């Protein structure tokens, strides 16, 4: 009888532990670009339309300067920068064009969650954007894996 109670207690503890989200969010895996000679992460934490246009311009210019197979470009948007990746963004077509050319756009889910808490509505973002739990964590992960961080 004591064994069954101990087993149930252990099982309940295990289930409770499994339901708790991990303290450290896992970053999104690196892009599959085996021939990339250059790896760039563009940080976008600004809601200013001119800065967002600049990030898109830098990504576009890098694609022109290097063969798209020879460069890995990742744009990580967090804070006000996520506005670029919302479904209603006026620059959506530019973003989707860059995605079609191999640029990855990451959107910070912590920021999306904050917007939802503040407005009561979860914002819709471009489906082709890659959700990451922690935008700055993704930048750190990329930097630790050979990416050069650029903040235009």
Automatic annotation (TrEMBL):
The keyword Signal applies. The keyword Amino-acid biosynthesis does not apply. Keywords: Signal. Residues 1-25 form the signal peptide. It comes from Bradyrhizobium ottawaense. Coiled coil: none annotated. This is Intracellular sulfur oxidation DsrE/DsrF family protein. It comes from the Bacteria.
